[in-house]
Specification:
Layout (H helix, E strand, L loop, with lengths): L14 H7 L2 H5 L7 H28 L7 H30 L4 H22 L5 H5 L7 H25 L2 H62 L1 H27 L3 E2 H18 L3 E6 L8 E2 L3 H14 L6 E10 L3 E8 L4 H4 L5 H14 L4 E6 L5 E8 L3 H4 L1
Length: 404
Amino acid sequence: MRNPVRPLHDQPLPAGLASKLAGYASTARQYPIFGSTWFGYRMRSFLAPMVLLALLVGVIGAVMPAAARVPAVYLALAVTWLAVALALALGRALAVVVCRQQWPARLEVAGVVFALLIGILVPLALTPLTSVGQAAKGARAPTPAQVERARENRLVNLAIWFVVLAWLAGSLDLVAWLRQRRLLHDTALLGEVARYKDERNEVEMRLAILASQVEPHFLFNTLSGVRAAMLSDPARGVAMIDHLVDYLRATIPQLRADQAHPFVSLGSQLDAAQAYLGIITARMPRLQSRIDCPPGLRDTAMPPLMLISLVENAVKHGIELKKGPGMIHVSAACKDGARLELSVADDGVGFGAATTGTGIGLVNIRERLQHLFGAEAALALRAGVDGGMVASIVLPLRPMQDSA
């Protein structure tokens, strides 16, 4: 019968158990390299090897022949242990200090490399360049051949110590740190992309909700007006239906486009406004309207349904409440060479009466402008010079191809 306590071979240990069994070196890998926590665990992982090295140095000093037991030999052994300790700690400690400064990427890499290089050169300067046997020799004057041989030995000794100290001082940690930086950078970019996608989906959903609130608002009012006209004056009802067909031809494509992109051309908005005003004029012959737009601005990008909402507000809250003839003037102009200004002016009952009601259209416009442009766009209401009200939208001037 299989022992349920015995783990299966070649199966990964549970995460909690693996972390409990991990040593200081393994625990250090769980933190950013050259971070304070990483450095703490890394130094703890070196404690046991350094204690063993100290014991080894002590044993060598104890078993050394009596003729070699001179202060220079003991000093060489002590300096060797100190050089190894400095190689393990100095460069890494300086690298931790460099990474705390949050320098630019290239400067930080250069600083870490320089810190580790200091961690190699300082111990190298302390490393005894003569062998223990040479240190044990007296002050006897060497021959020229011995001097040349000693110089060659020092060069070889220096090269060997440089390689050893470079390994001890964290050259492998440097390679792992560079790889970790690249992976963290890639992970951060992927996180930013995912966050932007989530924000875009949220904004598009919000815009779809706002647009769905606006569309029935004016469409149902228009159909209600058509129904009333058909009952009282069939000829006028037919004219309204013709205008409604023109209006639907102008608006349905932009409503479909809004599902994939939140911008349509200004020309399509002006055509929809013209068709809508035709419907209202057929229902209310006292209304006159005018649309002014330079030809070069018709290809400018703007969010759909905003202009028609302002036109509907002008009709509902301005002209319908006024007795006698009424006028609605829709205009588009370039402002400061970088902004598009759309204005809907009416000579209706005035500012106070025009701002009564739920105001859902104006609220939707402001929220959509905020979502799409932030502080670059705004909706403003002001009293007209000759009475009535002027509603203006100012937004960045962008061609349709750029917005797409």
